[in-house]
From TrEMBL:
PANTHER family xrefs: NAD(P)H NITROREDUCTASE RV3131-RELATED (PTHR23026:SF123), NADPH NITROREDUCTASE (PTHR23026)
Official protein name in the record: NAD(P)H nitroreductase
Any one GO MF annotation of this record: oxidoreductase activity
InterPro entries: Nitroreductase-like, Nitroreductase/BluB
SUPFAM superfamilies xrefs: FMN-dependent nitroreductase-like
Protein's organism: Nocardioides panaciterrulae
Length: 345
């Protein structure tokens, strides 16, 4: 008769801790702080496992001003960069695929996340992200060295679009003239005015609130703001903008351009815009996007040839400068609830 030896069970093997859950809600909340045309916030997000997907929300596309969806893609690109900055600062590594499915043009990017480590520079970028807002008040006349613009442009261009500081006086004047012309064309276009009107002077969770529009000031620079009233019935700004020296300030102009003119390039331009914006904040500077000149086909084409020598497709113009240090805090433009733009699969 054979014996059967029974081995007593040993201590249970230690179970591995479950991987941390991706903080999707916090990531999307921070990503949605990104800038967008007229604060339309044209994005949607879907989360599944460790993957986050970014979609364009075509219901917030302005068909007359943005028939190709270029502004939508640039806005979503800024949100994509914000999401990457937030993820890195929260201790997550991110692998991004841009425009991954030709059959689904609304799917602009996927973000695959894995636990990583936090570095001090990531925290600094997150602080800039939290502080970022669109300040439309007049810049001071303090000089901005071309070397500083070059450094900002070089760092931001690592995100895929070219950033061209406009430092030649003749090109500065040409660009200012194109911006004036674009503003005149849009103000004289009834379809454009009607399309934009619901987004300006808004009191809701989208659009540009009157508290973000500077009050009418005769001492502002000659280049008009698109949000200054053109008619007596137009919304009046409520953001105090102290008097300053009258005059024109053509320094600090930069053009964001790309070699191609398609959705992947527009998305990259948005990422570059976000990187440039956060970089200016970390330098104590302010940035204001000026999109009219690239919204009007005629002025965009002239910008491409007269300022960029036909080498790049202009996607956006920005002005970088100093804000008056004695000015009060800027009210943040509203954002819609995360629950409205984030879905879990």
């Amino acid at each position: 008769m054979s014996e059967t030896t029974t081995t007593a069970p040993g201590p249970a093997a230690e179970s591995r801790p479950a991987p941390p859950a991706v903080p999707f809600r916090e990531l999307v909340e921070l990503a949605c702080r990104a800038p967008s045309l007229h604060n339309t916030q044209p994005w949607r997000w879907r989360a599944d496992g460790t993957r986050l997907r970014l979609y364009a929300d075509r219901t917030r596309q302005l068909p007359h001003s943005d028939p190709d969806g270029r502004a939508v893609a640039i806005s979503c690109g800024a949100a994509l960069h914000h999401a990457q900055v937030a993820a890195e600062a929260l201790g997550w590594e991110v692998v991004v695929r841009r425009c991954p499915d030709p059959a689904d043009p609304d799917l602009l990017a996927t973000l695959d996340l894995a636990p990583g480590r936090v570095v001090p520079a990531a925290q600094e970028r997150l602080e800039a992200l939290r502080a970022r807002s669109t300040d439309r008040r007049r810049f001071t006349s303090w000089p901005l060295p071309a070397e500083r613009l070059d450094r900002l442009a070089e760092r931001a261009a690592a995100w895929g679009a070219k950033v061209v500081p406009v430092v030649d006086p003749g090109r500065q004047v040409a660009l200012e003239e194109l911006m004036r012309r674009a503003d005149e064309i849009e103000r004289g276009d009834p379809d454009h005015v009607a399309e934009v009107a619901p987004w300006v002077g808004s009191r809701g969770a989208q659009g540009v609130p009157v508290t973000s529009i500077p009050e009418v000031n005769p001492h502002r620079p000659a280049v008009p703001s698109r949000y200054q009233p053109g008619e007596p019935a137009d919304p009046r700004g409520e953001l105090p903008d102290p008097q300053g020296e009258p005059g024109e300030f053509v320094e600090g102009l930069m053009v964001l351009g790309t070699l191609e003119d398609d959705p992947p390039a527009w998305l990259r331009c948005g990422e570059t815009l976000s990187a440039l914006w956060l970089g200016t904040l970390r330098q104590g500077l302010s940035l204001l996007p000026l999109s009219q000149v690239t919204e009007v086909p005629a002025t965009r084409e002239r910008l491409r040839h007269d300022v960029l020598d036909g080498l790049l497709w202009p996607q956006l113009t920005v002005r970088v400068g100093w804000q008056e240090i004695t000015r009060g805090p800027l009210p943040r433009a509203p954002r819609g609830p995360v629950e409205e733009v984030l879905r879990f699969d």
